[in-house]
Design brief:
The protein is mainly alpha-helical and 111 residues long. It has two domains: 56 residues; 43 residues, no CATH class.
């Protein structure tokens, strides 16, 4: 059985090696697969492989260019770097108050 099998290929098929994959499917899906297999004169396995291949092709097209979201670094436990502050870190080493002050230019540089 070919790994690149499509439903349109089932009439003119050739056989090759395969691997067993035991998967539970709802009864109505199994019945539908059986009906398609009978209509095409193919085995249920060939129909399942053809359907999976077509679905995988569609998925690959839909995901083309997709990238996983960036991993964000948890700031839990990080504290403001201003001496004596102790507030939770928000950005650039500062708590919200000191970050806003730095942004406005009101924060004196630390030695």
């Amino acid at each position: 059985m070919r790994g690149n099998l499509r439903l349109s290929d089932l009439k003119n098929r050739e056989y090759s090696s395969s691997r067993l994959m035991n998967v539970k499917v709802p009864a109505y899906v199994s019945d539908a697969i059986q009906r398609v297999a009978e209509q095409l004169g193919a085995s249920k396995t060939e129909v399942v492989i053809a359907l999976l291949n077509q679905g995988l092709d569609a998925s690959e097209r839909a995901l083309k260019g997709w990238r996983p979201p960036k991993v964000t670094v948890s700031t839990a436990g990080r504290r403001c770097t201003i001496k004596g502050c102790g507030q939770t870190h928000v950005a650039k080493g500062y708590c919200a108050t000191h970050y806003q002050a730095a942004k406005r230019g009101q924060l004196k540089p630390q030695a």
